[in-house]
Amino acid sequence: MWAYALIATGCINWSYQRGEAGVITKSAVVVIPGLILIAITFNKTIAAKLETKAAKYFWGVVGGLALIFAFVN
């Protein structure tokens, strides 16, 4: 769910700021962590590590910072 939120926010950000310079880079900062997170879920070994508290905090911070970046820019 978190990965989908990142990807959707990045795509919406790109859509709203399409005419501005550097919008692809700004949107990629939000979309790429979401794509990485979705890719991780397809590997059972790595996906099992997402259940740890450290991984949850890590992806929470990464996603939170990406979303803040999207809303500020």
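Next protein, fold it too.
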Amino acid sequence: MNDDDPKPQPPEPPGPDDCCHSGCTYCVDDLYQEALDKYRAELAAWQARHSHAGASRHP
């Protein structure tokens, strides 16, 4: 694995008691979902970069 391009790590999910269920504008569950969406996009890009790198090493 390339140290200059580390694999993205998933965000830490909120704990079961982190949401107060009062309808906050920036709920921890919403923020986690946004972070998860970003992680998935970054992971897909990382996998694409590394699958092409691996394919070029193996003729």
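About the second fold: The chain has a mean pLDDT of 88.
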